[in-house]
Design goal:
GO cellular component, one term: cytosol
Family: Belongs to the LysR transcriptional regulatory family.
Shape: globular
Structural class: alpha/beta
CATH class of the largest domain: Alpha Beta
InterPro entries: HTH-type_LysR_regulators (IPR050950), LysR_HTH_N (IPR000847), LysR_subst-bd (IPR005119), WH-like_DNA-bd_sf (IPR036388), WH_DNA-bd_sf (IPR036390)
Helix content: 40-55%
Keywords: DNA-binding, Transcription, Transcription regulation
GO molecular function, one term: DNA-binding transcription factor activity
CATH architecture of the largest domain: 3-Layer(aba) Sandwich
Amino acid sequence: MNAEKFARSLTLRHLRIIAALAEYGLVAKVAESLNVTQPSVSKQISELERLADIQIVIRERNRLHLTPAGNRLADHARRILLQLDRAAFDLDAMTQGVAGSVSIGAVSSVAPTLLPPAISLMKRSAPQANISITEGHFVSLFPALESGALDMVIARIWHPQDIPGIQQKVLLEEQIAIVANKDHPLARETTLSWAQAVEWPWILPLGNSVARRAVESLFAEFGSAPPVNVIASSSLFLNIAMMLDTPALGLFPQSIAQTHASRGELVILPLDTRNMLSQVRCFWRTGQAEANSAFDLFQKCLEQSLAR
């Protein structure tokens, strides 16, 4: 491959095509997502293969599969496009002088992982913008969103439904894990039933929360009554501290559970949570983005931080 010619001839269209191809795998889907024709997509792929002097796709019926070289190129394309997007809204924020304020409500199971990178990105782009964060559970946060006290709510959702006057978007999918401290008797079990687990103390979400109803429904699904020895708490950090000091079982997002498991503090138990509360969504009032430039920027920063 002629590296100089490759770098000189590669275009943003090439990068968008290969990144979209990695995501969708279908020429029709790629064309639709980029608002171009299917022949145009095929042409760009052929140009990329010619420039790279290597096969980047394998055609199988109506699907295109990336070769190892294609996957590597797609990874580079995503990073380049992400940096360009960040540059665009950094400059946009500087030009517009985005200040103002944005108020975010989030459940404790998503706040520590989702918010810091988004906030960091926003403060770098718009240092004058004020950001306030309120932690709670969805039932307590949602009225504040409707009243205008909060601009956005980020929560794990059970049985999503449309809400008049409210826009919503899926941010990510992440499993919930059942955990115990490393010295718990169940930590050594390779197979475990919910009937066994229910006999132990539990740290569960607050009784009037969506998360608590979802957990109790999960117990019923496996033929068990909810545990009776319960500590109800919505504080993730308090829950972690209690888990380390008691024989209670608890629920944590997979990423947080894995972090503490890798430190040798907690053990993820072999219990199926059936995708309970795995979907994380953000909610905002219709028209909010147009009315509040700080909100609009935060939403973009949130999307950018998740794309990394």
